[in-house]
Amino acid sequence: MSKCKFCGQKAGFLSSYHKDCLDKHNIGINKILQVIEDTLTNEIDFSNLAAHIQLIANSSFIRPEEINDLYADGFENAVDKFLDDGVLSNEEEEKIKNFIDQLNLGQETLNKKGALQKAVKASIIREVTEGKLPEQKVQINGHIPFNFQKGEVIIWLFQNVEFYEQRTKTHYSGGYAGVSLKVAKGVYYRTGGFKGHPVKTEEMTFIDNGYIVITNKNLYFGSSIKNFRVQYDKILTLDPYEDGIGIQKDGASSKPQVFKNLDGWFAYNVISNLNK
Predict the structure, then answer these.
(1) Is the pLDDT of residue 18 over 70?
(2) DSSP letters along 174-194, please?
(3) Is the separation of the CB atoms in 39 and 49 below 8 Å?
């Protein structure tokens, strides 16, 4: 006879838990998630939060290794609530900082589902919309082969970005079987030797995978075959997409470019405000 995975007592034939124990466990999880969200969104003092969560866990068969996951989920719920209006206020950012400091939770735990990055991005957007120069809030490990300008601050780096550029392709349509017309001795003009008229089409062509660095002055793209910098004041159009952005630089010969596999909401808001 198997034992209940929650209380450790006999659970009956072919059963791994008691229904009452499962219900108590699930209720405890929901309580902890709600406590974390309520405390983070309504308070600044988090000194009693850990003890409160441990009391709920002890009475709900919640194992210690589950608690960190609940912190991550509760934190994500609170960040999403903060961003319901699309903005992270100074007060909300202060609550997040105190929450992290007082509970001594690692970035890996809080960013399990990207919630910490989401909060940092929202903070950066608030600063640039207020006309402030954002502090560098990300650390980049490894060498970046760009010659950054004096006073340039790295705001964000996106990796595994797909770069596309509009290219013109020409094909010929029409044409017909022609006849030879003698023009002069030894010279023949074959009318059917031409393939009709050229038709030009525009299409987005994949160029390479690389990374994008967004600074307070420029957008940089780097890859194994292509590296370039785009000044914000040289961007004629900026288009946001769910998973990327599209730009076209000022200039008669410039072609539309698309950068895919990045946070389009964040990149668009930062670049458009820095370009004002």
Answers:
(1) yes
(2) ------EEEEETTEEEEGGGS
(3) yes
Q: What pTM did the predictor assign? A: 0.80
Q: What residues contact 162, with CB distance under 8 A and at least 6 apart? A: 206, 209, 244, 259, 260, 261
Task: Identify the pLDDT of residue 113.
Answer: 86
Contact 172, 198 (CB under 8 A): yes
At 24-38, the pLDDT tens digits run 999 999 999 999 999
- The domain defined by 154-274 carries CATH number 3.20.20.140: no
Element containing residue 157 per DSSP (H, E) = strand 154-173
Burial (0-12, 13-18, 19+ Cβ within 10 Å), 210: buried
For position 262, what pLDDT does the model report?
96
Residue 106 pLDDT: 86
Domain ranges of the chain: 2-129, 154-274
Amino acid identity for residue 32 in this structure: I
Query: Exposed/middle/buried for 261, CB within 10 Å: 0-12, 13-18, 19+?
Result: middle
